[in-house]
């Protein structure tokens, strides 16, 4: 079916007939199915998911396991077969836990990847649809607009001023202009201006194109090196934790030597002391940390998805938690993006009110209290103009939705509603005045022009931001009057557009806006209301309480922006708004000096967004910035957390951003920040717990060795505590839910240590108590003549009980473990139950007794051990109580 890669040389008719598609209707669903079966899904050969055996094998590739294997071999060589067996058993239990947990993390990351996959707009069966790019087939008719990313190679069949950035394919940074005419057979790839390629994106214009190849048959598909999906680099926190892990491992080796030397000096049997030294070394290696980190980030991502934020880069999960400034768009993010034209101002100064709301075209026009006559020529010219310079359409109520809906840009749909309310028959008008040229709207120029023909007559309509339209009008007195009228409308928080028509018929749009200079006449201003989203006000308050400052960055008028920012609490008393023109004039120092007081940047063009991000970052702020257009990509990529809009955002913005908000709502960004803080906090809990357990064991053992006691724990028991007691609960700490006060404290610094001053205090309390309890108990039992195996078993059990209570302690830095709902974290409850069950097996079953050198503990002793272990909990409870008396609202993990 493919004519050997020469689609560019064929006529449009031939392209369509070879691909058997009617370009005006697209493929039918049945044809798509057949083609999908023939060509397969439109996918590049991704880095394949790791097979299970690799996941299992990777569990054995760690320093901890190497140490244990060496220890097993040495034990076996010394004839200690049971010890060797236990070590191997523990290694396999560890691998089992690790495989299960990594599988969980990998599955969730993979499912998130699928969620953030590329979408394409196609024309199928006579209707426009948005589909997953993986479902594209040869013959599909693509509908392209600025900001779309191409998911397949295609031949252009129709286009208006289409420009494509092919940087990803050719390295050429300037966009390439495209056209639809056939080219010579041997035109090189880079010059095939009638073709568009997968992995490139549309920077301007509109077009239709027929897909010629998909998947591996595309040009990118042929370049193997590009096709492997890049792995996420390590996040800053991951890097720091890895570094921390290395230090601990080095510490573990020192400890190993210290124990061997002390044991040797004390004359203890080498076999015993060697095993103890190995077990201790293992206790210090923080093997749970890496897994906890991976799972923490993956779980954080999943929780964010539930709250409508899709994180595309793992690093963003933790950066979100440190965000100090959220720069947000206005339209659609803070407001509902449901426009209603409520006011129009005419050249003769009349102010017309428009009744009705939403996209329901019922309502009327009133000037003063009088209805405006349908034949009022000034109003008719204005309403016809806005209906012509318009790409939107209105959808009447149907079975799916009982309300009128807007298809396309809501600003334009609202203008259609306005025209209908004045009695304009839109379809008849658009049929009579066929459009033959246009300059599409873009947020840099903030203007849109269309040219229409009816017989020999030509009409050129322009609409856009008032100061831009007015600048093209000749009449300066009129300009001044309209600028004041614009400001008056903007004070009412209305979004204002000016509408004008060319007075001269022979305007050539090929020359751009210059062709219009001095040749247009204003038809009026329209003011649109776009109500704020209900939940935003509360979200803004939450931000402020959390030490995060929201800043509005809008393309709209400064006065409109400020009015809405005041309504929502974003602009405080004394805050100012700066517009794009002023920003351009501002030297960098002045900008930085006044950043604290600017809460609205208005009429900014996308390049200025980048400057704002960089200025804020230079002040040490961690910046989240929203964006939707193709030109927002640089700012999104530079911001610490670029946030793209899922509904209105272009594919290009989405791929540049680190996070996508699926409902375009500001409140969802704030929720994501909250979840980001939770991930950091939970990781802090894990580090604290791992640290506390290791210190407990090391200190008890060293005390015994140095003070001349026999070994308080057998080596295999130390191993058990490390791998099983700890392994069953540590990672589950990461599943802790929100405590509710995450957004009541200041953002943690980007590089803030996970173990801060407060954690050190807690460590002191927890470790101090458990070492005193365990060592005191051990001393007491020995001194009352209890047999050594029973003393060891009881000390071993007490140590395990202390760790179980410690896990409960670590759940919250401030809240009591007794009142704080324990059953909320089922993972932890499950882990504790499993840990308990396994421990009982070790203490009460005969084969395990032999392996772990334990003996059954009398039941009465068991209660005593439980009560003593709980002292660790009580000590921490007292600290929390004292803290809450001192600082009623303290909150940090
Ligand atoms: P935000 O950046 O906060 O989402 P915005 O949506 O108002 O704000 P833009 O979409 O860039 O920003 O619009 C900027 C201005 O351009 C608007 O205030 C309006 O005057 C004008 N404008 C918006 N949409 C159109 C359009 N479809 N045709 C012509 N002019 C438009």
TrEMBL record:
The chain crosses the membrane at residues 52-78, 84-100, 247-267, 273-299, 686-709, 715-738, 759-780, 786-805, 826-845, 857-875. GO terms for molecular function: ATP binding; ATP hydrolysis activity. Residues 6-80 form the Cation-transporting P-type ATPase N-terminal domain. Coiled coil: none annotated. It is found in: Cell membrane. It is a multi-pass membrane protein. The keyword Magnesium applies. It comes from the Bacteria. The keyword Acyltransferase does not apply. Belongs to the cation transport ATPase (P-type) (TC 3.A.3) family. Type IIA subfamily. This is Ca2+-transporting ATPase. The lineage of its organism: Bacteria, Pseudomonadati, Verrucomicrobiota, Verrucomicrobiia, Verrucomicrobiales.
């Amino acid at each position: 079916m493919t004519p050997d890669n020469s689609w560019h040389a064929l006529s449009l008719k031939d392209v369509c007939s070879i691909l058997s598609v009617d370009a005006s209707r697209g493929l039918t669903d049945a044809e798509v199915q057949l083609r999908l079966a023939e060509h397969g899904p439109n996918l590049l050969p991704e880095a394949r998911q790791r097979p299970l055996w690799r996941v299992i094998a990777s569990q054995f590739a760690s320093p901890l396991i190497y140490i244990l294997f060496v220890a097993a071999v040495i034990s076996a060589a010394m004839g200690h077969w049971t010890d060797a067996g236990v070590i191997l058993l523990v290694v396999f239990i560890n691998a089992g836990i690790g495989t299960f947990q990594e599988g969980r993390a990998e599955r969730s990351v993979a499912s998130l990847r699928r969620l953030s996959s590329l979408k394409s707009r196609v024309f199928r069966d006579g209707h426009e649809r948005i589909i997953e790019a993986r479902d594209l087939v040869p013959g599909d008719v693509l509908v392209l607009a600025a900001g779309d990313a191409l998911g397949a190679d295609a031949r252009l069949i129709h286009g208006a001023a289409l420009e494509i950035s092919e940087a990803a394919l050719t390295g050429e940074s300037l966009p390439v202009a495209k056209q639809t005419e056939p080219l010579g057979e041997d035109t090189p790839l880079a010059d095939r201006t009638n073709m568009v390629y997968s992995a490139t994106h549309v920077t301007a214009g509109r077009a239709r194109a027929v897909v010629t190849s998909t998947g591996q048959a595309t040009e990118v598909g042929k370049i193997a090196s590009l096709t492997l999906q890049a792995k996420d680099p390590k996040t800053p926190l991951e890097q720091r934790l890895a570094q921390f892990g290395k230090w601990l491992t080095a510490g573990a080796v020192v400890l190993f030597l210290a124990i061997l030397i002390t044991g040797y000096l004390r004359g203890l049997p080498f076999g015993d002391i060697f095993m103890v030294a190995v077990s201790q070394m293992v206790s210090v290696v923080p093997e749970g940390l890496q897994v906890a980190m991976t799972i923490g980030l993956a779980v954080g991502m999943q929780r964010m998805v539930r709250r409508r934020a899709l994180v595309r880069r793992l690093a963003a999960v933790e950066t979100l938690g440190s965000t100090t400034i959220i720069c947000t768009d206005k339209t659609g993010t803070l407001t509902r993006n449901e426009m209603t034209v409520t006011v129009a101002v005419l050249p003769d100064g009349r102010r017309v009110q428009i009744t009705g709301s939403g996209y329901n075209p019922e309502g009327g026009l009133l000037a003063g209290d009088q209805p405006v006559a349908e034949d009022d020529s000034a109003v008719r010219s204005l309403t016809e103009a806005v209906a012509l310079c318009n790409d939107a359409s209105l959808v009447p109520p149907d079975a799916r939705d009982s309300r009128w809906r807007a298809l396309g840009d809501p600003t334009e749909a609202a203008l259609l509603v306005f025209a209908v309310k004045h009695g304009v028959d839109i379809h008849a008008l658009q049929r009579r005045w066929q459009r033959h040229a246009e300059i599409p709207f873009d947020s840099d120029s903030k203007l849109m022009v269309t040219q229409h023909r009816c017989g020999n007559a030509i009409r050129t309509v322009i609409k856009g931001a008032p100061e831009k339209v007015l600048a093209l009008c000749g009449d300066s007195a009129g300009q001044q009057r309209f600028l004041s009228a614009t400001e008056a409308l903007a004070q009412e928080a209305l979004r204002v557009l000016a509408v004008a028509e060319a007075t001269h018929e022979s305007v050539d749009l090929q020359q751009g806006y210059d062709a219009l200079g001095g040749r247009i006449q204003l038809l009026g201003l329209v003011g649109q209301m776009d109500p704020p989203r209900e939940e935003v006000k509360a979200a803004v308050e939450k931000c402020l309480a959390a030490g995060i400052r929201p800043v509005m960055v809008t393309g709209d008028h400064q006065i409109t922006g400020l009015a809405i920012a005041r309504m929502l609490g974003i602009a405080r008393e004394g805050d100012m708004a700066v517009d794009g023109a002023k920003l351009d004039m501002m030297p960098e120092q002045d900008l930085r000096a006044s950043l604290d007081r600017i809460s609205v940047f208005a009429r900014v063009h996308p390049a200025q967004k980048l400057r704002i991000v960089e200025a804020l970052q230079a002040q040490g702020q961690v910046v989240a910035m929203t964006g939707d257009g193709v030109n927002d990509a640089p700012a999104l990529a530079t911001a610490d957390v670029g946030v793209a809009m899922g509904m209105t955002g272009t594919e290009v913005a989405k791929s540049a951003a680190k996070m996508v908000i699926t409902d375009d709502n500001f409140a969802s960004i704030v929720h994501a920040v909250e979840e980001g803080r939770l991930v950091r906090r939970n990781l802090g809990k894990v580090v604290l717990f791992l640290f506390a357990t290791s210190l407990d064991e090391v200190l008890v053992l060293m005390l015994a060795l140095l003070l001349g006691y026999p070994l308080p724990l057998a080596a295999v028991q130390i191993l058990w505590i490390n791998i099983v007691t700890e392994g069953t609960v540590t990672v589950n700490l990461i599943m802790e839910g929100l405590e509710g006060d995450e957004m009541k404290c200041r953002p943690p610094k980007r590089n803030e240590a996970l173990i801060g001053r407060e954690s050190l205090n807690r460590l002191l309390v927890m470790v101090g108590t458990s070492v005193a309890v365990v060592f005191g108990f051990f001393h007491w039992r020995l001194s009352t003549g209890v047999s050594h195996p029973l003393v060891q078993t009881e000390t071993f059990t007490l140590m395990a009980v202390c760790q179980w209570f410690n896990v409960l302690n670590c759940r919250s830095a401030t809240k009591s473990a007794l009142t704080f709902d324990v059953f909320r974290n089922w993972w932890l409850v499950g882990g504790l139950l499993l840990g308990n069950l396994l421990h009982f097996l070790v203490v009460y079953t005969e084969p395990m007794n032999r392996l772990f050198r334990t003996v059954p503990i009398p039941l009465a002793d068991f209660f005593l051990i439980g009560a003593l272990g709980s002292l660790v909990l009580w000590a921490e409870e007292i600290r929390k109580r004292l803290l809450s008396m001192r600082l009623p609202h303290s909150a940090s993990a």
